[in-house]
């Protein structure tokens, strides 16, 4: 998911861990047997292969199948009186 604005995040994701500004959030499915000595480097290469940048990205990996997922979209609603 990519947003128009940067968000100040606190994350323990494979990419973008710690406190940083980010506008892209990527939850990647990996096989339950996934094994890598350098997952941060491998995830960065994965993004590059899809023409995406690792900078400004918070990246997560999960072995849970993503066929059932929920995407929540939040936005400000302006009320006029």
UniProtKB/TrEMBL annotation:
Q: What is this protein called?
A: Adenosylcobinamide amidohydrolase
Q: Which domain of life is it from?
A: Bacteria
**One Pfam match, by short name?**
CbiZ
Q: Which organism is it from?
A: Bacillus songklensis
